[in-house]
Amino acid sequence: MLSVRGLSVRYGRSVRALESVDVEVGGDAVLAVLGGNGAGKSTLLRAVSGTLKLHGGSVTAGEITFDGRRIDRLDPALVVRQGVVAVPEGRQVFARMTVEENLRAGGLGARSASTRASSRERVRQLFPVLAERAGQRAGLLSGGEQQMLAIGRALMSDPKLLLLDEPSLGLAPQMVGRIARIIREIHEQGTAVVLVEQNATMALQVADRAAVLEVGRIALAGSAAELAASDDVQRLYLGGHAESQAQAESEEAEARAHRGRKVLSRWAG
Ligand SMILES: Nc1ncnc2c1ncn2[C@@H]1O[C@H](COP(=O)(O)OP(=O)(O)OP(=O)(O)O)[C@@H](O)[C@H]1O
Ligand SMILES: [Mg+2]
User: Fold this and answer.
1) Burial (0-12, 13-18, 19+ Cβ within 10 Å), 217
2) What's the CATH number of domain 2-83+159-268, 3.40.50.300, 2.102.10.10, 3.40.50.1860, 2.60.40.10?
3) How many Å lie between the centroid of ligand 1 and the Cα of residue 216?
4) Cβ–Cβ < 8 Å for 157, 87
5) For residue 3, what pLDDT band results from cuts at 50, 70 and 90?
6) Distance of CA 40 from the midpoint of ligand 2 (Å)
7) So what's the pLDDT on residue 243?
8) Which of these, 48, 132, 219, 228, has the minimum number of CB atoms within 10 Å of its CB?
9) Which ligand has its closest atom nearest to the C-alpha of 36?
10) Helices (H), ranges, the chain
11) What is the C-alpha to C-alpha distance for residues 57 and 53, in angstroms, rounded to an integer?
12) Is 9 in the pocket of ligand 1 (CB under 6 A)?
């Protein structure tokens, strides 16, 4: 249902971020898009969600269709109305608004009051912790909870296709596991997912199919099982050193955030 054909993207005149990229996502699939820093993963999601212009980028060749309709010339709001909703990188939530207000904002694009109510119920079930924190300011949630809120807010507009940009970034391993299970469940409920990740271990566990971007081109594509077994992916993305280093870094970041919160709550209390 999502079809990206021959897509090339530039920022300004000189930065070629994507070059003849082909990607297909079936209506019932999770596609993982892997790749290192600057490979073009976020650019691909921006192109699909119609937000390239906001970042100074433009499509220079190719086309993107969703359910048979061209979407590469639509404004972001119209792309959402087609059923394609993105959760951008960096856990963007409205920090000064409450959890409940964030979710309500996500529901503004819903097709009807009844889909809004059913989406609200779905988010409640997927993320019980958000219901517990309904009245709390989003900026005070932990990193993992903010990621959940960002995903929950996107689900409020009842997407057919959810685009997730590095949901595991900076989260401790346990939280990464939780997010992975939630993505799987969202998919089982009938929503297709494009999952952009540097965490290949997590992404290949969740996805049916996967593609590897390298400097703006698709270097490898296949079933998640094929890619997990491929020597290149093993060496580049599942290799012991880089992975354990990244894990150690994310644990350290989480611990630091936790200490910070403790200090804050001591102040507040
Ligand atoms: N707003 C922008 N203006 C100019 N160049 C950009 C912009 N955003 C990205 N680029 C460039 O486009 C290329 C692809 O970037 P992109 O952000 O899509 O990579 P990525 O795979 O998402 O990387 P990361 O894993 O670090 O998020 C990079 O060379 C990057 O420097
Ligand atoms: Mg990115």
Assistant:
1) middle
2) 3.40.50.300
3) 9
4) no
5) very high
6) 7
7) 53
8) 132
9) 1
10) 41-49, 76-82, 99-107, 113-126, 128-132, 143-155, 173-188, 200-206, 224-229, 231-237, 240-268
11) 5
12) no
Q: What integer pLDDT is reported at residue 263 of this predicted model?
A: 53
- What are the tens digits of pLDDT across the range 94-129? 999 999 999 999 998 777 888 899 999 999 999 999
Cα–Cα dist 114/220, whole Å: 42
pTM metric for this prediction:
0.88
Residue type present at position 162: L
Q: How far apart are CA 194 and CA 208, in angstroms?
A: 10
Alpha-carbon gap, residue 42 to 240, rounded angstroms: 25
Angstrom distance (rounded) from CA 161 to CA 34? 18
Q: What contacts 46, CB < 8 A, 6 or more positions away?
A: 52, 54, 55, 57, 86
DSSP 8-state symbol, 56: T
Distance CA 203, CA 224 (A): 9
Per the CB < 8 A criterion, the answer to whether 198 and 35 are in contact is yes
Distance CA 260, CA 174 (A): 20
Q: Within 10 Å of residue 186's Cβ, how many Cβ atoms?
A: 21
Alpha-carbon distances of 108 from 78, 112, 146, rounded to whole Å: 13, 9, 19
What are residue 210's DSSP bridge partners?
32, 222
